[in-house]
Please model this.
Amino acid sequence: MPGQTTLVLIKSGVFTLALWPFIELGVAGFNDRLGANPVEFITRGTGYWTLVLLMVTLAVTPLRLLTGWNWLVRLRRMLGLYAFFYGCLHFLTYLVLDQYFDWAGIIEDIAKRPYITVGFPAFILLIPLAITSNDRVIKWLGGKNWRVLHRLAYAIAAGGVIHFWWLVKKDITRPFIFACVLFVLLAIRLFYMLKKRKHRIGHTAS
Model:
């Protein structure tokens, strides 16, 4: 395990890298480089980074299982909250800049546009995960209940991938890559879960 100073440097580096897309977006806005459709540019960018950070967050446990680097768990909360941060920016861009708080229009969109029908509940499910990401709530919920709740992250990621896939329609390269990454992460988790269960059954039988 890295020393305390090294771990602080790693966390600082990850924090900066996760914040960088937001900084770039702010600089692009300040310099009027958001393209012909700034709302679409912001919406697509924040949605993309929401998915990226969701995948990185989900990769922490499989990577820890494969490498034995248990210290990676210390990065998971920060990465998950960053995913929520970009998810909020994504939703707020749609709510404020695209729909201008037109709640009737939003409800109609949710009902009529399949990619929004999938994307909206995926964002809503992110909220309880963000709320339960502090130590007090984890202690109140209990570790087992907390782990069960946070497995929703896989369903959220799947919803995000479908949302992206149905949005782009023609060039599905990026959503396909996200789908493959999610499949691999799920496969690794499932493999270790089955391995652990088999070991437990064998231990009980002996």
